[in-house]
Amino acid sequence: MKKRYCSRGTAVKFDVYPSEHIATQFQAAPNVTKWLADRFDGKPQLVGDCLNILPPPRSTANPGGGDFVVSLNKWLLKGGLQLKTLGETVLMPQGSTFTADTDLTARRLDGSLAVPTFLEHLRVIGLPVQVRIGLKSQGTSGTVSLDDAGRLAVHGKALATVEIVSAGELGVHIPVGCRTSEPVEFPLDFEGPVSALGGGGLTFSGTTAFPSLTDCGLFGPALSLAFSGPGNGYTFTVVPPAPESY
Hints:
By secondary structure, this protein is of the alpha+beta class. It is built from four helices and 13 strands. The chain has helices at 2-7, 21-40, 195-199, 220-227; strands spanning 15-16, 69-83, 88-91, 97-103, 108-124, 127-146, 151-169, 172-180, 184-193, 202-210, 213-214, 229-239, 244-245.
């Protein structure tokens, strides 16, 4: 269809979205309605995607014939952690992603988090310290369902080992290499409209406990006192990647 329109001199805007029709319709709707509004307002589509010489896009939807699975492939992960003992908020770094297969037939969620190691300025025992932090995913699992009214329900947990890679100040860092003695459990609970999946409103929030730290050497007591304990808040929002022009 794009080729036919382009062959007749039409300026075509063609975007490829990163999932299947349920997620795509809600992600695309604001873009489509804005495009239509501009046309009705008399604003011409002067530049389109007709000169794109890329090969035709391949569908990102899962093949039919089996369970209905919606795959989230490296969707953006935004949000952060509220460290109760330190009174600090740590934001997820750029490049953090959430990957999962949501099997709506079997009502099963399987996935993982990917968070790059990042630097954060914190005050530990009253002293400013630059800490290099890592979150190593230990898997995400749970249940997922979609009812006839379009209500999405997700209940599960994400497990991640929190690592303190190094600590220092003024560009001088001492390798620490300590980590939580057990993975931190982040409950993932969401009940709301399925539009949240593609509209960037799929948000999980709550509180969790950080186990004691291990393999910290001389820094162990101070870091465990600073990071361990219950009542740490978190907010994770899963957002689909932006569409790509074709």
